[in-house]
Amino acid sequence: MPRIEGLVTEGDLRELVGNLGVAAREPESEGWQQVIAKGNDDVSYRVWCDKPMEGPPRYLSITTYERCSTELLRDFYMDNEYRMEWDSTVIKHEQLQSDENSGIEIGRTIKKFPLLTPREYILAWRVWEGNEKSFYCLVKECEHPLAPKQRKFVRVQLLRSGWCIRKIPGRDACQITVLHHEDNGMNIEMAKLAFAKGIWNYICKMNSALRRYPQRHISSISILTMQRLIKKFPEALETVVDANDQPQGATVAPSHFERTSSRQLPVKKSSRATIASGLLLIGSIVCLSRGRSNLGAQLAMAFFLKKAFKKERGSSSEEQK
């Protein structure tokens, strides 16, 4: 087995903590554009987007779960076996390697999308426990000899994601703040529209799965491994966390989540491209949310997917050569 202790370091954690500090202030003042803000009696969700000059957007989200402990939310997020039960996009997950000394794990996940080649994720992650039952996790893409590339999958080349789970003082609730940056080869504009229109339904589905989670009596391999490998949050970083809780202070955007201000004017799309994206979005949401559609809708969606993902298929073919 290869040595993996350097894949996710405390330096990566320091960068994550510094970037998560943007959520302690108004994200809009840092150049983030709000995408959605919704809630009900169980869960509230706010998300902002930052669009770099090139590549896919980055997302900053804050989700608050009422009547939920930080330990329960941590286990729910890290339970890959349970995710395959409630998340219909995840069709397979397997652990490839773990390191007892560093606490790093590596896994392989396959996700399916309507009428597209399944995406393959080879990811390394590490979890830390901080003061007052707070938890941090950093996930990044990697390669592993036990997961050679296969023609039937598109290997995701970029995924940087990190989160912090903390209890809300004075309330029976906890909050998870997430920074996520992913390039899975999809058309960027379509992916942004689909995210904005479909994410709240996904959050509600996730919340329902979370509420059922305490009744799950199966010991998940993912959770048993995570609980064995979890590391203590470095004391030297506690001062950084305390500074992030203050309303003022500069945030340094390091390499993993380096941002380019979203105040830059976006490229204007033609009316034909806008219509195509809109129809594609509708078809994708129908397929994702209902699981079926009539033949005419399937043919229409296939046509627009073919147009929107023509470039993506070309890139995939080059990778397979």
From TrEMBL:
Domain named START: residues: 28-215
- List keywords of the entry alphabetically: Nucleus
Q: Which InterPro entries match?
A: START-like_dom_sf, START_lipid-bd_dom, START_lipid_transfer
Instruction: Please tell me where this protein is predominantly located.
Output: nucleus
Q: Which GO terms describe its molecular function?
A: lipid binding
Q: Which Gene3D superfamilies match?
A: 3.30.530.20
Q: What is its subcellular localisation?
A: Nucleus
Report the GO terms under cellular component. Answer: cytoplasm; nucleus
> CDD domains, from UniProt?
START_STARD2_7-like
PANTHER family (UniProt xref): OS02G0468400 PROTEIN, PHOSPHATIDYLCHOLINE TRANSFER PROTEIN
Give the protein name, as stated in the record. Answer: START domain-containing protein
Recorded source organism is Oryza brachyantha (malo sina)
The organism that produces this protein has a lineage beginning with: Eukaryota, Viridiplantae, Streptophyta, Embryophyta, Tracheophyta
